[in-house]
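FAQ
Q: What does a multi-component entry look like?
A: The components come first, one per line:
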Amino acid sequence: AQTVTQSQPEMSVQEAETVTLSCTYDTSESDYYLFWYKQPPSRQMILVIRQEAYKQQNATENRFSVNFQKAAKSFSLKISDSQLGDAAMYFCAYRSSPRNEKLTFGTGTRLTIIP
Amino acid sequence: EAGVAQSPRYKIIEKRQSVAFWCNPISGHATLYWYQQILGQGPKLLIQFQNNGVVDDSQLPKDRFSAERLKGVDSTLKIQPAKLEDSAVYLCASSFRNGRVNEQFFGPGTRLTVL
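Then the predicted structure of the entire assembly, as tokens:
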């Protein structure tokens, strides 16, 4: 079974600074997808960024980028120029293939932005 | 485009009582998911529907939980009877099959407290 591990229960960063959230996963598959979701206090999960395992290039979405290390099974999220609105729980998630849509989530990292 | 709707937002019940949650997915989304998110954990998939058929219910505690999506649109998740450990946020999500990666859109969730 696939597992997703987020070893940082809490992180904090000064506004406008950069922070990196860590995620590791365990799988024996070669074709899969990885996601970072943001869950603000409103509880609604919002997709931040996704990475397809067959793509070597790291995904980027504005201030959010990932460092995908397939051999190490590592998928970290970098948030640049942190803003107060970035404060939330961040979940790393794994999905095994185009056909299997089941998401396996990590336990989350609570990110606090310090003004 | 309207998002995934869920009701109620909050529910408090006594143990051994019954409760039902409702979800209306985004229009045109054939796939619907119910997740359970216990405090301090990531969401865990309970059941996945494709139209009105069940794709995956391997983690649904079938002795007390049931779900239906009779007309392939909205869905109801029921717990009967509830236990203390059922206290959690119940998230509904939907997706539209369009290519390799079908993004799941989440609703705001229902927070259940069992006393």
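Q: Is there any commentary attached?
A: Sometimes. For this entry: The radius of gyration of chain A is 14 Å.
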